[in-house]
Amino acid sequence: MKRLQAALLAMSLLISGTVLADVSVPHLDIGKGGHCVNDPKYMKLNHGDLLKRQRTITVHQGVIGRYSLIRCVNCHASKVNHSVLGTNSNFCQGCHVYAAVKIDCFECHSSRPETVSETLREVAK
Ligand code: HEC
Ligand code: HEC
Ligand code: HEC
What we know:
By secondary structure, the chain is an all-alpha fold. The chain is 54% helix and 0% strand. The protein is globular and about 60 Å long.
């Protein structure tokens, strides 16, 4: 009996684990489309570090690089509300709510492409 219970418990854990993995992020609005700045799988794992490294590089050297936040927003903003935030299907918000990872970037940075300054928008095209 004990063994049966243990087996059932193990099975239910297995099942819920699988369900979690399969469900992943529901209906993320990817935005414009096209090609990401690197392989999406790589981006999924590394974008946090890449963005933070880019910030240091840009602030010290004044270049808009491959991983500039401005690029992400320009491409990943939803065509519906023109933002990467706002609803849980918006790109940055949706996944972060799901993953329970808080970021403060958009307290200063724009979450919408059209409010990006003209100069930066030019460089980030
Ligand atoms: C598919 C899910 C997903 C999407 C989409 C996503 N993130 Fe993340 N993000 C995560 C997860 C999970 C972490 C925590 C693990 C890590 O650092 O990689 C994270 C971490 C980060 C971090 C580092 C936070 C810290 O305190 O170190 C930043 C910054 C960040 N994301 C910004 C963004 C921005 C900006 C966008 C939209 C352009 C975005 N993320 C889209 C899942 C996502
Ligand atoms: C307190 C305000 C503030 C916060 C919070 C903040 N930034 Fe910034 N960030 C700035 C300013 C100011 C600059 C330099 C001016 C510019 O280039 O827009 C900058 C520049 C950058 C750049 C280089 C320019 C670009 O668009 O690529 C990156 C990358 C960047 N920040 C990423 C981040 C990320 C990622 C977060 C969140 C983890 C974050 N920042 C949070 C104020 C902020
Ligand atoms: C020119 C458009 C474009 C730019 C610029 C861009 N992306 Fe992407 N990104 C995409 C597309 C399209 C996908 C989805 C590709 C796929 O699923 O095959 C994607 C996928 C991703 C994913 C994986 C999402 C998931 O559900 O697994 C992350 C994370 C991501 N991008 C973050 C970023 C960040 C951070 C930046 C800025 C440094 C950025 N992207 C810049 C178009 C872009």
